[in-house]
Amino acid sequence: MARIGSFLVLLYLTYPFTLCICDDDESNYGGERGNLFPGFYRSSCPRAEEIVRSVVANAVARETRMAASLMRLHFHDCFVQGCDGSLLLDTSGSIVTEKNSNPNSRSARGFEVVDEIKAALESECPNTVSCADALTLAARDSSVLTGGPSWMVPLGRRDSTSASLSGSNNNIPAPNNTFNTIVSRFNNQGLDLTDVVALSGSHTIGFSRCTSFRQRLYNQSGNGSPDTTLEQSYAANLRQRCPRSGGDQILSELDINSAGRFDNSYFKNLIENMGLLNSDQVLFSSNEQSRELVKKYAEDQEKFFEQFAESMVKMGNISPLTGSSGEIRKNCRKINNS
Prior knowledge:
Elements: H1 2-14, E1 20-21, H2 48-62, H3 66-78, H4 111-124, H5 131-145, E2 150-151, H6 165-171, H7 179-187, H8 193-200, E3 207-209, H9 210-218, H10 232-241, E4 251-253, H11 265-271, H12 278-285, H13 288-299, H14 301-316
Parallel strand pairs: 1-2
Antiparallel strand pairs: 3-4
């Protein structure tokens, strides 16, 4: 895995727009996207994307898992107040950090990499590139560095001056949510079922903690019985790693076949009833429309990549702060003048 990761890092730094779903025309990024467009920093900080790409590449070379962690930070940020960098704020003054919410506590990681990105950007062009944009770019680069698609990232977000612990607790889908709850929480952000399935495909990389899937192994419906949709030999293997009690932080691969490579094997796993999280497996077991999407992406990786890129742009455009709203933080962990 380390050799594959190093090769992909080198390839991306050499050919940064491989597999790119691209459209750099500013006129195509108006309307609901507000003032976001890919060339936003072309004059004010022309090396911004290069700087982000370099820092993320080094981080992923050190630890392949970091790609999934950065992508998850972007997802958890966008589902609370929009993509405004609110997740990055520490508790200070009137700010109560989102990092201590149920979805983020003891699991959200990668903040040090964002700090490193921001420091490099501030050195190159002070008070110019927002933390929200830096994180959005890092998510795209994390996809490419693990073998996934690239896309042009609309830019121009500004950073929030507030955070929402309650929003983080209530808006982000949980691993044991029902299919309807998951879809509802995506719908609340302007995302549809196709986005749900495509974006869930990011679970082709990364790991999950025992506490997030223990219920499926031992007490799925509150009657002391396991989840019958979980493939039996896979479930037995998971029980060896995840005990009935204790070991909450023990990790298991979200994609048993290729946890370090972004591909479509996640969807193939769902068809075999080998999705790790309940929120994964219900995409195949609970709804005919989502089941057909799972099958389509399992059969055609290119179609998955195309839709994933489109859905990531769509998610990245949730309620951005633009113009004079918000601020450009100097330090992603705290608002200016605090």
